[in-house]
Amino acid sequence: MKKLSRNPDLVWRDEPEEREVILNALMSGDESAADKGWVIIIDKGSMHQLNLLAGEIWLLLDGTLDEAGVANDLVERYDAPFEEIIEDVREFIAECDEKGWLA
Fold this sequence. Notes:
The protein is an alpha+beta fold.
């Protein structure tokens, strides 16, 4: 399977302190925190905030992993079923590809 990498022409940043706030809120039972953004992508003058899972996937798109590798990493981190995570990964990858966010 193809190794996935971010488009090097995109401007983006992650905010690890925001990620920690989100994770702490989730651990406290605030499920809505998962929708808050912590990775920001600027594309064609528009700013896009990625939620917790999308941000995690984005950071893993460094050219070393394929879809299954990304999903396996997330399964280990979040103790979630592979079947659910791989679908989320595939959906996000398809969106990124459509937007031109992948190399």
